[in-house]
Each structure stands twice: as C-alpha cells, then as structure tokens.
Amino acid sequence: MNDTTKQFLFELLETASPAGYEEPAARRWRQEAESFADEVKVDRLGSSTARLSGSGPRVVIAGHVDEIGLQVSYVDDQGYLWFQGIGGWDDQVLTGQHVRILAADGPLTGVVGRRPAHLLSSDERGKASQIKDLWIDIGAADGDEARSLVAPGDAIVIERSVSELRNGMISGRGLDNRVGCFVALEAIRRLADERPSADVLALAAVQEEVGFRGAQTAAFALEPDIAIVLDVCHATDHPKADKNSGGDVKINGGPALARGSVVHPGVQRMLVDAAKENDIPYSVDLVPARSGTDADGVMPTRDGIACGIISFPCRYMHSPSELVSLTDLEHSIQLLVEFVRGIGSDLDLRRT
Q1: Residues 261-318: tens digit of each pLDDT
Q2: C-alpha 298, offset from chain centre
Q3: According to CATH, what is the number of the domain 3-67+174-341?
Q4: Domain segments of the chain as ranges
Q5: Residues marked as catalytic
Q6: What CATH number should be reported for the domain whose range is 72-158?
C-alpha cells in the first residue's frame, strides 16, 4: 500500500460520520471515486456508488461508511449535555473520553464526565457505568451559553486520531467500517487499469450500525447478481478470546471469509478458490444464523441476492481503539480484484 493510498485511508477514517450523519465521509469517498470511476452517484438515503461499466454480470462490493456515535438529547441549565448512543456501545469506554460535537456552527470539543470514583459508594463502585449516568462538559458557563452552541440532535464522536502501531497495524475510531469502503473503492480502482467483463460497483452504504438500511435499499435499486459485503469481524488472537465458538481468526492472517446461512455457498467457494490460486492467506469467519453485517439486509432483497462476506479481523470493536492490519486490507483488495476478474458471462448461481 503506497503513501498516497494510505493518506486517503487515513483522511477517510478521520472524517466523522455517525449513522444518519454520513455526508462528510461520503463526500470524501465520492471525490476520490470521481478520479477513475465511469459513474459516481449518491441516492436519497446518502449511500454512494462508484461504477466500472461492463457487459457481464453485475457485482456490488459493499462497505458501510457510517460509524457508531452519540447524539445530544438535552442541554441542562448548568450547560451540561446529556446524550444517547447511535449504534451499539460498551458504555464503559466512554467515561473520560474527549468528544467532538458536530454542531451547526462547527465542531466543539467536550469531555465525558461522571461522578468521581472517590465519591461513589462501595455498591456504586462495583456497578458498570451507563450512558444515562454520564454527561458531556464543553466548559459552558451556563445553559444559555451551551444552547447557543449545541442543539438536541447534534451528533457526537469520540475525538481520536488514527495511530500506526507495529507490524502494519493501525488503531482508531470508525475503522468499523470505513476500512470496508476504502477496500471496495481501492479494488475497483485497480480493476480500472485492466477492465473485467463484469459490471462492477463499489458501494459506501449508510446506516449499517442502526439496521442495514442503506445497503438494503441500494441493493434493491442496483439488482446485483453478486454482492460482496465487507466489514470487520472479531479477531480471536487476544487474551480471553473464545476460539471454540469464534474460530481461529488472526490479525495479519488475511481476510476472513464467512460461512453461514446468509452466504451463498457458490460465492464462498469462488472466493476461496481465488485466494488459493493467488496465494492469499485467509481464515474462516463463522456466521451460522446471522452475520451482523449488511449481508443480513442485502441477501433477502428482491428474489434473493447471492452474497459473500469478506471481513477484516479486528480487535476492540465498537471502541475508540479498534485495531486492524493494513496487510489484511491489502490482501482483501487483491482477493477482490482476482475474484472479479474470474467472473465469466456464464455465471449461474442457482442452488440446485
């Protein structure tokens, strides 16, 4: 992965885009796509597509551009902000975090507060903190000052930059799942140099974290023959991980190829074959009933869409310190390129 490509990835990750508030990151994604795609569009919900036109089967490569976040629910008379979660939070990670409030007149910095541990009873110290007991302090003198700056409904993200760790790993906020949008776009960028016969679209879907809405509606409109959904999955190479139920999924072990009820077995075999033929390492992600990805919304759309899932092993999911491997992202891009190039006009995915 060259420096220019990495810079685009980091810019995308730094751009706040909680579910329902994805416009800034989606605009940056479309701006990049316009440098090489035949057609770039955005739909009414905000999902974006970049297309390489072809005469063969239609393939959609989908990542979701939104991240989990917070939303201002009330500004009290002392100037403190109360809030709710957008998507699934572990409330424990919020205390003491610096946050960015995406206010109408520009972003504001705040800090998440709670009663100090010194002032808690012994019973209270043993209990997990909850969002309802936390507030955000922006340093306002009173409620009037705070209300002049912030309104109920304003979105919030944790203020956290992307960090590069050792062995090609990166950590930060929102890797779930703008890394998927990045991989989808980079795959079709490379395909643009040597056009496949397939009609290929990269999709940056909105609102995955609150219900797969963008991918489901986009899939209905696009009618793909195959949809490859990109997302993070839980790595099991850290202390206390349960490999008995989660399988053996390692950072720097390559993409994880899902098997389960929402995954079309023919598409899964095609992905495995492409990985083996091109010496791309991979592991297996287990999704026996539901995947927790956009595939759950895409697969039952219209008369059924043949889905595959490529996941990037991730540690500390849904926290401000999500961790993935740049090497795994690069291998995923390579796998998608080889997979799409191998799709012929005689594709038949009926399960007979």
Answers
A1: 999 999 999 999 999 999 999 999 999 999 999 999 999 999 999 999 999 999 999 9
A2: 16
A3: 3.40.630.10
A4: 3-67+174-341, 72-158
A5: 208
A6: 2.40.30.40
